[in-house]
Input
Amino acid sequence: MRPVEIKDGIHWVGAVDWNCRNFHGYALSSKGTTYNAFVIDDEKKVLIDTVPAAFESQFLCSVANVTEFEKIDYIVVNHLEPDHSGCLARMVELCKPEKIFISPMGAKALKTFFDCEDWPIVVANSGDEISIGKNTLRFYETKMLHWPDNMFTFIPEAKMLISSDAFGQNWATSERFVDEVSKEKVSDLMAQYYANIVNPYSAKVIKTLDFFGELNLDIDMLCPDHGLMFRGEDVGFALAKYADYAAQKTTNKAVIVYDTMWKSTEKMANAIASGIADEGVSVRLMNVKANHHSDIMSEVFDAGAVILGSPTHNNGILPGMADVLTYVKGLRPQNKIGACFGSFGWSGECVKILRGWLETMNMEVIDPNIKTKNRPDHKSFEECYELGREIAKAVKAKNA
Amino acid sequence: MKYVCNICGWVYDPAEGDPDGGIAPGTAFKDIPDDWECPVCGAGKDDFEAES
Output
C-alpha cells in the first residue's frame, strides 16, 4: 500500500502482510497483519520503526515516496523485534542518520541484533524529548509491553501516541483506521492479540495505564505497530479495552480442552459440557487436534473455567495436550476454575498429571477428577454430567 | 533466599548478586536499594517474590 498522510506531515509508511498466518512462530494470525511505521516530514525528518526484512523493497519505496533517504535525520526504534527492526540496518546505511533514538533496554540489546558499533545511538530515557521543528518527540519506556526494550513515542503537537506492540491487532486491511471498519471485529482481534502476546504482562499494563492516566496526555490518535490505528473517540475505546483485559475479568463461560484416542475421553467431554450448559453457563469444546493452541488460548482468556481432558498414553498425557498446556501456562491465565478428566487402559496417570497442570496455573480445582477405565459407562457419564454442573455453579458463584 | 522476577522470570541469587547492577555477591535481597532494577527486563524490586 502507498503511504498515507495520517496527520499534517506525518505519514504511515508501513506494510500490509496479507499472507501472514503464523505470527512470530507461536500464534495464529488468520486474517494476516500489518506492520506500521511512520515518517515525519518536519524541519528534522524522522523515521519511526520499520517493517520485516521480507518487505524491504516496498518499504523503501514507501519511504522514498515521502522523502529522500539522505534527508532523514533521526530514526526512532520503539522495539527491536525483527518485524519492526527488519529494515533498520538498511535504513541506517541509506539514511546515514544524525541520531538513532532507542530506550535504555533497547540500547543494551541492540548490539545483540546488529553490528552497530558506529551507529549514532542516543539513549532515550523515559520522558526525554527532542524538538524536530513544528513537532516534538517525547519518549516513554514501556518495559515488558511486551519486551524489555519497548517504548512509546508521543508527539504532543500532533496529539499522537505511537504505542509499538501495545493495542495491536492482527488484521491485514486496506483501511488504516478503526473507524473505517467493524469495531466489533477489531475488538475480537484485539482480545486475541492480547491473550496470545500481552497477557503475561498484565501487571505491567495496569501500571502503564495508571502512569499515562496521571500524565493525562492529550491524545487523539493512538498508533500501534500492528493492525488498525485509533483516532478520536476510538482512543478511549482502546484504552478501556486494555484496562478490561489487564483486570483479567472472567465470564460465565467454560472451555473444555481435550484430546482423545478412541473417543472415550471425547464422550466424557460431551457429558461434562451438557452438565455445564444445563446450568446456564456457555461452554466451548476444544479438541486440540481440531484447534490451534493460539485459538484455544483466545477462548481460555475470558473463560471462568478451564477443564482438561486426556487419555493416559504411555504413562503420560497425549502430546497435543502437552503442547497446548505449555503454551497456555506461559501466557499466565489468571482467576480460573479448573477440573480434569480422562480415560485409561491400565496405569491411568492422566488426571494426576492434568491436575498438576491446573495447580501450576493456580487454578481452583473442582473435584472429583474423573478417570474412566477404557469406556465410560452410564455411571461415568452421570459423574461427568454432575461435575459439569458443579463447575458451572462455581463459575456463576465466582462471577456473581 | 532467592527471589524471582514476576515479569520476566529472572532469578536473583544472593550468592551471585548483580555485579553489573552494582549489587555485590553475598547481598541479601532485602538489602538491595529500592531503585535497583531487574537486569533482564528492568522491573522494579517490588515486582520480585521469594522463590517457592
